[in-house]
Specification:
- By secondary structure, the protein is an all-alpha fold.
- The chain folds into two domains: 1-58, Orthogonal Bundle (Arc Repressor Mutant, subunit A), CATH 1.10.10.60; 62-207, Tetracycline Repressor, domain 2.
- The chain contains eight helices and no strands.
- α1 (2-30) packs across α5 (109-118), α3 (61-88) runs antiparallel to α4 (93-107) and α4 crosses α5.
- The relative contact order is 0.10.
Amino acid sequence: MTQALLKTSRQQQKAETRQKLLDAAAAELASGRSFDTLSLREVAKLAGIAPTSFYRHFHDMEGLGLTLVEQCGESLRKLIHDVLHQASNGRSLIRASVETLFAYFHRNQGISRMILQESISRQPEFRRAAERLMQTMASDLADYLEEEARERGVPLGHARLAADSMVAILFTAGIALLDTPDDERDQHVETAIIQLRMIMRGAEAMGQI
């Protein structure tokens, strides 16, 4: 029993240290640093561990970065499901999507910028990870749009293409919002909402053809 408790305690301690490394990197990203400027030694120091101990948790900085993207992806997918639930209760899907995701980007500025940057990165692993995240979100959204259109009895054309475009706008507009003066934020949000509505109207029009 004691050995089992000790093993559990060591596993918990390892998980906590691993998360400290992720949090340290995320904090630096939030301060405006780009991921490729972060060094293993720097992140280890910020997390309060020896650089050699880093390798007990990640193979290298690329492994840490990919884990950050994966964690962000899990959070965003949960948010999307919450948004769809709100929409099913009568709230506008488009407004709920914009407001919810923009709020997430604001709370997680560093990793949000990183995902957008890595989606066009020369590093293939990072680029693929960022692309997978956006594709997964677009796939979930496309499924919902098709189901919701059937319930309304409205034909919808090219649902996946519409979802791809909507996710791209949500990311680029949401992250651009981080650099927008406070007195222009509301207009920025409304512009994104109009853009998404135009995409939906276009998809509905294509469904009539």
